Amino acid sequence: MNKLPIPEMIRRAFSALPFAYAPYSHFKVGAALLTEDGEVYTGCNIENAAFGPGNCAERTAIFKAVSEGKRDFLAICIVNENQDGGHDFCPPCGVCRQVMAEFCDPETFQIILAKSPEYYKIYTLAELFPEGFGPGYLKNE
Question: Which tens digit of pLDDT belongs to each residue from 111-133?
Answer without folding.
Answer: 999 999 999 999 999 999 999 99
